[in-house]
Give the backbone structure.
Amino acid sequence: MELVLRRELDAAELVRRYPPIIDDAHKRMVFALCGGADTTGALAITRWRAGAVPEVREGRVDVEAVPAPFQYDGAPGVWHVNFADPALFFGYGGGLLAQDELQALEHPVLGSVREALASEKHALTVERGVATPVLVAGAERRCALDTTHLYGNAFAGAPVSAVRAALDVLQPPTRSNLIAIAAPAYGQGSYRREQLDQILATAYTGFAAAVAESARLWPGVPVTVCTGFWGCGAFGGNRTVMTALQLVAARMAGVARVRFYTVRADGIADFERGAAAARAPIEELVRERWGVSDGN
């Protein structure tokens, strides 16, 4: 993989120079309530281009399945996957609230990150068909939103009172480290080997970049990647495939631990099928079929 961009930025100055453009009234309200304009701290932003994928390492990765939505841990070496669009944080200011947009809502500096990188033509997680993951270390998480009744397209039409009731402003804010990677979207039928290779290269590049950045920022600290059913919502990915390839990528990249959030308890069985598939040759996954978009 290749480092394409590195920026060390002050968050307060970034928000001042590149204020987020928020069209949705609910998101404007949340930005104000959580003090998004008051975001502070140092940000380390990098962008990486995928290259050749190495052979699978034999090293051990500790894997934990958690039957809950994402829970954030701001400890050094802990990274959370952003289920990105090829256009980085593209929906942060609109009415949609899927996983990508929820992270941008709770980490309001990400809107400014997008605007700044867009001004340099770097706000892309895929370019000319090649994965270019973007990592953001040190983003303040200034609020938490309970999306039980607000996820996806339900958010924009919800009453203001429902959004306010679901919002918890964090005092003080915590900090998160994020890996923005885009899964392939809207396939049909069985997976092709080139699709599997693309997914693996994307996940490996994002995870290996997190290992490299952790070594730079927190030398000697083992890396934890927190993820879930990446690409299995709006993009219609297969849970077995996307689980298996992320676990293989983590092993390749030298990640010490994967914390896999299944959202609900009934997702554990899907995770376990993917974990079993991760121990088999990758080419066996061509028997798996694409799922269906959830419309969010």
Summary: The mean pLDDT is 95. Strands lie at 2-10, 42-49, 62-66, 78-84, 126-127, 130-131, 134-145, 167-182, 224-227, 257-261.
